[in-house]
Each structure stands twice: as C-alpha cells, then as structure tokens.
Amino acid sequence: MLLSDLLGSDAVEAGGRRLGAVIDVRLEISGAPGQLLAATVVTGVLVSPHSRFSTWGYERRDENGPNLIARFQRWLHRGTFLVAWDDVERVDEGRVVFRRGYAARDAMLPRAPRSS
C-alpha cells in the first residue's frame, strides 16, 4: 500500500457514516534507532471532518510557526482525530473503513523531549 492510497480517502464508520477525510498517517520506525532504511509501520490515521488538506505540521503541541497560519490551521482542522491502525477494518479505493467500536483519539502529537 502507498501513502497516496490513504491520503484524501473518505473515512467512514462500519455502518457507512462518513466521518471526514484521511489527511495524514502516523508512522513508527521499527528497528534500531538511527538505522539506515529502517522499516516504518503505520500506527494510525488522522481524520479531519472539515478538510482534505494537510495540517502542515500544526498538529504538533510545540509548533512555533506564524500565529495567523497556526490559527487558520486549527480552525480548518477543528475536530480532527486520530484512529489507531488496529481500528481500521479495511481500505477500499477512496475509503478507509473503521471497525465498530473504534476509538477517536487526540490528534495532537506529544511534546518533543528537550535536549540539554
């Protein structure tokens, strides 16, 4: 599967109700830290009820971009949520279907650890 197969797809509940669009995915690197070409695994998808556009990274808690753009992005993506990949029942062409009982989680990334 390619990332382009997911981005922009309709996100729907098992019963068929549309929830929004898949705007991004969360990935986890498997393998040793710093390993060249370590495998990546999809751990979740971000769903926006109001937009099919990227968040441009403004889902990060410690973003410090221009305030006007940050405010617009927060408004555009209000209600965005994360669904774990384990809650994806199937991926059809142009549709990602979540299993019954899926959990809508906070889409914000945790703060990055500060290096000293």
Helices, strands, pairings?
Elements: H1 3-6, E1 10-12, E2 18-30, E3 39-48, H2 67-76, E4 81-84, E5 88-92, E6 95-98, E7 105-106
Parallel strand pairs: 1-6
Antiparallel strand pairs: 1-2, 2-3, 3-4, 4-7, 5-6
Can you describe this structure?
The protein is mainly β and 116 residues long. The protein has one domain (3-106): PRC-barrel domain (SH3 type barrels), CATH 2.30.30.240. Helix content is 12%, strand content 35%. The chain is built from two helices and seven strands, in the order H-E-E-E-H-E-E-E-E. The protein has helices at 3-6, 67-76; strands spanning 10-12, 18-30, 39-48, 81-84, 88-92, 95-98, 105-106. The protein has a seven-stranded mixed β-sheet, with no helix packed on it. Strand 1 (10-12) and strand 2 form a beta hairpin. It is globular. The mean pLDDT is 81.
Could you name the key traits of this structure?
116 residues; mainly beta; SH3 type barrels; seven-stranded mixed sheet; 35% strand; PRC-barrel domain containing protein
SSE order, one letter for each helix or strand: HEEEHEEEE
- Architecture, according to CATH? Roll
CATH homologous superfamily title = PRC-barrel domain
Percent of residues in beta strands:
35-45%
CATH fold naming: SH3 type barrels
**Largest sheet data:** 7 strands, mixed
Write down the Rg: 15 Å
Organism: Agromyces mariniharenae
Protein name: PRC-barrel domain containing protein
